[in-house]
Amino acid sequence: MSSAVPSAGARALPVSSPADVPASASVRLRLAALARAAALATRGVVELDAGRAGMRMTASEGMRVDGVVCAALADGRYQLSVHLVGAMVALRPLADAVRARVERDVAIAGLADQLGPVDVAVEDVQVRAEARP
Amino acid sequence: MSETQSPRTPRRSGAASEPAEASSKAKSKSGNEQLSSELGSTTIADAVVTKIASIAAREVPGVYDLGGGTARAIGGATRSIGIGGIGVDERMQGVGVEVGEREAAVDLTVVVEYGESIPRIAGALRENITRRVEGMTGLTVTEVNIAVNDLYFEGDEAAAEPERVE
Predict the structure, then answer these.
(1) Cβ distance A36 to A68 under 8 Å?
(2) Hey, which of A20, A67, B56, B154 would disulfide with B129, CB 3.0 to 4.6 Å?
(3) Complex-level ipTM
């Protein structure tokens, strides 16, 4: 039954840049878009990974941010989980660099008070010769 | 043909000929203390460790292929009909990993080239896999278990090809 109707997230417009998200959008969506852009701008990150079912994403207001899960915490802040594919580099420092960049860009956007922990999950690595669809 | 080299090696198997502090050194350089904090956590998927171990194994001279007979046969069959890589990453065949929060164990099935020293290849595999996995992930590699599944003779592939009828 449920497979006949695509989820709201699947129908939503993918966000490729924080500029795609209006300032009036929810904090959750804005944080996710900022995190996605920050992660992709980090050297060593090849792409973000929404998972086989495409459920690692944040969807709201007709838009979706793939590869980033943003969820509310009880204290009013939001927890971010960034799921990435890395290059063949040291992955722990890469995760730390992503976290730092996300925190910096969120602070620049004036949302630092809303930001909780930033979890980084390296889902896969890509060797140079590997072509991804 | 199946010969198992060190089926259940001791913890930190590659350290047999290394100084005793090698294990503690690996832990101190790994930065595992930064795995999780109030700022967030870092997780590394099993597939990542599998791929790193697989690539590291193939870097060792004398290793012809990875995987048992069935896995290699399926890989060869799918490749021959042009669907290689669909569903299963061939580079991950022959590699099994157990990944914990701070440590990882690797099980490897390899085919080595005839004439090479299996103990030397096994040692080189442990050393290279440990170095690559620890370097890239910060996890401490506690075991690299190696099963030598077959030997490769030069010309084996040509002999296996079906004869052409003209």
Answers:
(1) yes
(2) B56
(3) 0.74
Task: Determine the Cα–Cα distance for residues B116 and B99; give it in Å rounded to an integer.
Answer: 31
Quote the CA–CA distance of B47 and B33 in Å, as a whole number.
22
Q: Is B111 helix (H, G, I), strand (E, B) or coil?
A: strand
We report the CATH number of the domain holding residue A42 as 3.30.70.1350
Q: What is the mean pLDDT of residues B70-85?
A: 61
> Which stretch of DSSP H or E encloses residue A123?
strand A115-126
Angle of helix A91-108 relative to helix B118-137, nearest 10 degrees, comes to 10
Q: Is residue A48 part of a domain?
A: yes
* Three-class secondary structure of residue A88 per DSSP: coil
- What is the domain range of residue A93? 13-126
Chain A residues within an 8 Å CB radius of B42: 91-92, 95-96, 99, 119-122
Regions in chain A scoring below 70 on pLDDT: 1-10, 129-133
The three-state secondary structure class of A78 is strand
Element (H, E) at B133: helix B118-137
Residue A3, domain member (yes or no): no
- Answer yes or no: is A2 within a domain: no
Closest partner residue to B42 (CB to CB) among A80, A88, A120 is: A120
Q: What's the total number of domains in chain A?
A: 1
Pull the structure tokens for residue B120: 């030397």
At B12-51, the pLDDT tens digits run 333 333 333 333 333 333 334 456 778 899 999 999 999 9
Domain assignment of residue A108, yes or no:
yes
Contact A96 B135 (CB under 8 A): no
B34 contacts on A by Cβ (under 8 Å): 92, 96
Q: H or E element: which one contains A48?
A: strand A45-48
Asked if B49 and B99 count as a contact pair (C-beta separation under 8 A), the reply is: yes
Q: Nearest chain B residue to A118 by CA: give it.
A: B40
